[in-house]
Write a structure and sequence with these properties.
Elements lengths: L1 H18 L8 H11 L6 H13 L2 H6 L1 H18 L9 E2 L2 E2 L1 H4 L2 H19 L5 H15 L4 H10 L7 H15 L1 H14 L4 H28 L2 H4 L14 H24 L8 H15 L3
Antiparallel strand pairs: 1-2
Helix pairs in contact: 1-5, 2-7, 3-5, 3-11, 3-15, 5-7, 5-11, 8-11, 9-10, 11-12, 12-14, 14-15
Amino acid sequence: MKQYIETLRQQIESALDSATQFDVDCPERLREAIRYSLLAPGKRLRPTLVLLACELCGTPEYRLNALPAACAVEMIHVYSLIHDDLPAMDNDDLRRGLPTCHKKFDEATAILAGDALLALAFEMIGHLTPSELAGRCCKELAIAAGACQLVGGQMDDMLREQQIGNTESTIRMMEHVHHRKTGALIRASLKLGGMIAGASEQQLTALDEFGQHFGLAFQITDDLLDVLGDESTVGKRLRKDAGMAKWSYPHFLGIEGAKQAAEQAVSNAEKALAVFEQDSLSLQTLLDLVKRLPNRTK
């Protein structure tokens, strides 16, 4: 399974590198900033989910067809990180173990690098064939990245501390934020892979449900890592949430309560994939990825 994941990662890395070999009309400083952020060491989780979902619903041959979509979701993800790290947003200076884009270059260059990656993502979707599939995938990704999902979730994340009610209602509001800010792109990654493989409606529904629970487990784990993690391993500044009065699962549920919530999300994610053949490597890898999440906090 580790060799399988490494094969996928190498395919993704190669495709991302090829996609950012711009011609002479791209200013060198902008090119450097784009590649600095996009090619920085990372887990490549979202593009990996695209390829795994594609193979799960089709065959290994389908996986190569999904590489443009895999690149696109990683570009959207990295663009959102560049912008989230800016002083006007989360004001972070470390990402993936390296200085953030605006620290390495400057704020204006970071904004433009993010803008360019957003545009490039949809250019990559345009490489999908047939054109009808490209159109469907373009719409799916645009919705996930747009005002009601990823961007809307980020906006609410900035405003939510002003909306605190009782603990139960606040947790529901927090989950609503994270289903969009974190979960939307994870769900889109899985659905894009399925769509490219010609998945049935039942399969797409199962992938979407898996993505919802995966996204929740991912966010709870991320919140726990902010409290329990090590910066050298996680690759970003930690212990920020409490200092910035940010909502988090450990804040409302406690450490053990948050761990239990993550384990429940993992269990729900496993159940969502029951419609698929249980002996496929792609399925076992998806399950392994979600099961690993709570272990990162141990």
